[in-house]
Each structure stands twice: as C-alpha cells, then as structure tokens.
Amino acid sequence: MTKTVAISLLAVVISASAQSETHKSSEKNKAEELIKSAGDQVTAAVDDVSETLKKSKALRENSDYLVLGNYSPFDLILPSKYGATVGLINSANTTWEFEYLRASVSVPFIIEDLGQMTDERISLIRRSYLGSNSFNLSYGLTYFDFSIHLGDKLLNRVSGGSYPSIDLVEIQSLGFNFAVGNRWTFKHNITFGVDWFSWAQPVYTLKKKSPFVDYATNSDDKDDVETAVDVITYVPRFAFFKLQLGISF
Description:
This protein is α+β, with helices and mostly antiparallel strands and 249 residues long. The protein is 34% helix and 44% strand. The chain contains five helices and nine strands, in the order ααββββββαββααβ. It has an eight-stranded antiparallel beta barrel with strand order 1-3-4-5-6-7-8-9. The relative contact order is 0.15.
C-alpha cells in the first residue's frame, strides 16, 4: 500500500513538473513571438521612414520655391532668434535663400547697465546638397544690424541734461555666413530642416553710432560702452540646432 502511494505521488510530481515545463516553454515561445513581432514592426517603421527620406531629393526637384519659419534657440549674440526664409529651388542640388532672423531682450548681460538690445540678421544663402537627399552645406553674405538702448543708470550720469538719441547705440555691418545641416521634404511637400552648426561673421562695418561716448563725462562709463560696441562689432555669431519648418511648392 505504501509503495502504491509513493508511486502515485511520484507520478503526480512528474506530471506537475512536465506541465510546468510545458507552460514555461509556451510562455517562452509567446515572449519570443512578441519580441519578433515588435522587432518586425520597428524594422517596418524604419524602412518606411528611410523610404520617405529617400524621396526628399525627388520631391525637392519637383518644387520651385520654399517658405520656412525659423527658430534658433542657441544663437549669439542674442539667443532664441526667430524669423523666416523664402527660397528659390534652382535644382535638386541647389537652392538660393533669403533669410531673416531677429531677437530682442530687455535684460542686460554683456555689461552692467545696458538696456534693451535688438539683434537682426538678413542673409543671402546658397545651399548645396552635394548630390545627397538631405545633407547640405550653405554659405553666403549677411547684413548685421545691432542696436542698444542704454539703461537709465548710464544716462543719468551724463552731465548737462538730456540729449536727443543719446540712449541709442547702432552697429551695422556686412559679413559672411556658413552652415552645415540636413533638410527633408515629406508628403504634401512639408519641409523640415536643421542647421546643426552655423557661423555668421561680421567683416566690414557700415555704421557705428554711439553718441553717448561723445557726451559722457565718466571715463568708466565711456570705456564700458566702447568695449561693448567693439565686442558686438566683431564677435562671431555662432548658432546651434537652428530649426526650419515650412513647405515647398
């Protein structure tokens, strides 16, 4: 009797163990199927995106013009520039573009007591795709217009009362620009681009107006403003991750 019970118990254990192994194998197979299914979906999505990106060149070639909105979050001298681009698509490999960027800030950060500053750039750009779908190099000419409204602390230290336009500093110059980026054209000719790195460099000064320097009697104030003007006149305008979104037609 005892032997029979022992045999029965052993049979139950073996059966449970077999069922457990079968269950584990089934769960493993399901997990593998889920992983394979997810992998297939990711691969299909990547293939779809890749196929779409490959069409950028053809879509660009079938368009004549483009209009884009721009946002440049990391941009010297003033960050968070915004603006627009209009362009002529000469071929799949070349576009000619007119770009406008602007930023304004009321908080001084170059030297103490400076007031509101406005930074504007107008550029004529030739963008070359070098035969690729999206990668491009761009270069051209840029007009720089930077203005400062001096703060009250500086102006209050000018002797002899108030003077017309003494608070305004204007710096205008010409220079060049260069950038490296990617630009894609999608279905319905939606166009998205990123200039990963760009450099705009003032070279020739057209106008440098700072009447405050002529009227100020405090030598430290004059030196501060002259230093700021010199820095602004020649400092390179580096930018990173400039975004562009619009349409080609």
